[in-house]
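new request in #modeling-help
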Amino acid sequence: MNLRRDVFQAIADPTRRAILMLVAAQSMTAGLIASNFDTARPTVSKHLQILTECELLKQEQNGREIYYHINAKKMKEVADFIEPFRQMWDDRFNKLEDIMKDYLPNK
Amino acid sequence: MEQKTKINAEEGKQELVITRQFDLPLELLFKAYVTPEIVEQWMGTKVLKLENKRHGSYQFETTDPKGNKHGFNGVIHEFVANQKITRTFEMENTPFAVWLEYLEFEKITENTSKLRMHIVYKSVELRDQMLQLPFAQGINMAHQRLEEIVSKLK
């Protein structure tokens, strides 16, 4: 019997994080994912199995191909995944504020 | 510390709202959006074109650390100085569908102002994908740093 997979354990592995990164940008087949790594294909398959078991990835049949895509709901459990997005805008707006303060009169 | 930038992204909706308060008079906040040299500084992008008018258009271009160029463009649908900009936003050469941005600028006091950015995507999936992008880039960067460290150990 398989040990119950833990999401945090799943993302602790750099290859699995890289797989999530790839698939976050675009749904992909196992073959396409594997072509992005030097690792042997069975190793990549194992990683995909783990990510699917802990529901970070979802499989979707499209004709004869199976596509992997990110399960956004589960990703939210991993970390507050909106935080980097918020941080990105916060950084931009902080910069905007800094720059514009130079345009304030009497300063 | 209270967060100055807030994101409201409700589950299962194809839109999100970004709000931010600025310690800047409304006019200066608006100026930051319409002056190409200033947009370039805070957005970290090159401004190839920026026509601040109804039915005008804009074109931005960023260069990533690997030297790849990424183009962004859109059309301006509404333009009211110091009040609002409604525009489309397209990431060129990506599978991401164009989205719609409603920017509302508001005066709070003489020296403070507020921006509300309402973004409407083509689908819930696309919105969630866009929310994930910086997260994905973050783990990608962490991964690259790890690779660099590992390759130095070899």
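bot summary: Strands of chain B lie at 5-8, 15-22, 46-50, 57-63, 69-80, 84-91, 99-107, 113-120.
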